[in-house]
């Protein structure tokens, strides 16, 4: 797919998406500062989430609406109260989108219902992302796909049947530009549960480019994902983990995001080809392999010994393994120190 003249897909450099989520901590100024930080770090896009507590759930204090007590980040919180704290006010969206575009970033969002899509269409959002928990909301997928915009589908918690249903729904509604994200929907996610080896499996199964929505700590996992073919990497970003925030514990700070941008591209560049043999960058080094050289001035008739012939750098003389064949022979002519040893010399 092509978004704002940047191609996203297999064989292309990784497309880096900075996820703001609720790390604005209820401040528009902080949200705009996060946009600045993402731009300065070299990210391609900034993503927000478009919902309100009322579009996500209902305000009911019942155990089924409460997050488990032992949850690492949001234990014992009710969904409604969490979403009230974490949502990005809709009146901020236009300012965030305009600021991002002014900084050269592509702004887009994860909508969670029809009203969110309506708002984002008014803002001319260039693409949409379906969050992992919404992968079974096929009407929402069809609605987003029906806009004709590129669509990203995250697959945290989903089995193959659910992913297939989501991809089929998107294609059936007209989606032509589609990226599927491998994802472990745990916050933070243990690296050992990330299963990067499934990236090429997903690519083969669904015939679409595969990226990674990553919630592990640090940048090691997303960089490793590039070697398995991840073409898009999404990471949460915060200005300072010490400031708190609903997702700050597993978010990257700006300098770390900058490192991800640099190192993921370096990893992509390093993939290269399957060719075995010297590369263009190694050609100079080929000159400095070892070979047999005269290492002391000799005269015709002198015997070849370990004192006057050795294996040294550079190339030009006989192969090092020829030493056993030349020792004990005699020189046919005078030779100065630094002369490559050739058969005509002995």
TrEMBL record:
UniProt KW Iron keyword: no
SMART domains: SAF
Residues covered by the AFP-like domain: 291-346
Enzyme class: transferase
Record bears the keyword Transferase: yes
Highest rank taxon of the organism: Bacteria
GO biological process entries: carbohydrate biosynthetic process
GO molecular function terms attached to this record: N-acetylneuraminate synthase activity; N-acylneuraminate-9-phosphate synthase activity
Entry EC no(s): 2.5.1.56
Residue intervals passing through the bilayer: none
InterPro entries named among the record's database cross-references: AFP_Neu5c_C_sf, Aldolase_TIM, PseI-like, PseI/NeuA/B-like_N, Pseudaminic_synth_PseI, SAF, SAF_AFP_Neu5Ac, SAF_PseI/NeuA/NeuB
Keyword tags: Transferase
Pfam families listed in its UniProt record: NeuB, SAF
PANTHER family from the UniProt entry: N-ACETYLNEURAMINATE SYNTHASE (PTHR42966), PSEUDAMINIC ACID SYNTHASE (PTHR42966:SF2)
Protein name according to UniProt: N-acetylneuraminate synthase
Record organism: Actinoplanes digitatis
Taxonomic placement: Bacteria, Bacillati, Actinomycetota, Actinomycetes, Micromonosporales
């Amino acid at each position: 797919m092509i978004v704002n003249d940047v191609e996203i897909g297999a064989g292309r450099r990784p497309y880096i998406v900075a996820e703001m989520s609720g790390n604005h901590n209820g401040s528009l100024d902080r949200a705009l500062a996060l946009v600045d930080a993402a731009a300065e770090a070299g990210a391609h896009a900034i993503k927000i989430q478009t919902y309100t507590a009322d579009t996500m759930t209902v305000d009911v204090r019942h155990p089924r609406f409460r997050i488990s007590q032992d949850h690492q980040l949001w234990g014992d919180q009710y969904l409604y109260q969490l979403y009230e704290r974490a949502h990005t006010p809709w009146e901020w969206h236009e300012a965030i989108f305009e600021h991002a575009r002014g900084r050269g970033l592509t702004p887009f969002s994860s909508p969670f219902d029809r009203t969110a899509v309506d708002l984002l269409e008014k803002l001319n959002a260039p693409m949409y992302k379906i969050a992992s928990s919404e992968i079974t909301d096929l009407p929402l997928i069809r609605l987003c796909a029906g806009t004709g915009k590129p669509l990203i589908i995250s697959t945290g918690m989903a089995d193959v049947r659910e992913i297939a249903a989501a991809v089929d729904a998107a294609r059936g509604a007209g989606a032509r530009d589609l990226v599927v994200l491998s994802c472990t929907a745990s916050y933070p996610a243990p690296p050992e549960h990330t299963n990067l080896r499934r990236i090429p499996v997903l690519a083969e199964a669904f015939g679409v480019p595969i990226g990674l929505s990553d919630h592990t700590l640090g940048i090691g996992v997303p960089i490793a994902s590039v070697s398995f073919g991840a073409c898009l990497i999404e990471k949460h970003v915060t200005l300072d983990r010490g400031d708190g925030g609903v997702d700050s514990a597993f978010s990257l700070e700006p300098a770390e995001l900058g490192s991800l941008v640099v190192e993921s591209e370096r990893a992509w560049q390093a993939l290269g080809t399957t060719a075995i043999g010297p590369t263009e960058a190694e050609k100079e080094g080929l000159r400095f392999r070892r070979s047999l050289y005269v290492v002391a001035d000799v005269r015709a008739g002198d015997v070849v010994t370990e004192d006057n012939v050795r294996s040294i750098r550079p190339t030009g003389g006989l192969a090092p393994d020829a030493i056993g064949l030349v020792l004990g022979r005699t020189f046919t002519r005078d030779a100065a120190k630094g002369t490559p040893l050739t058969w005509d010399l002995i």
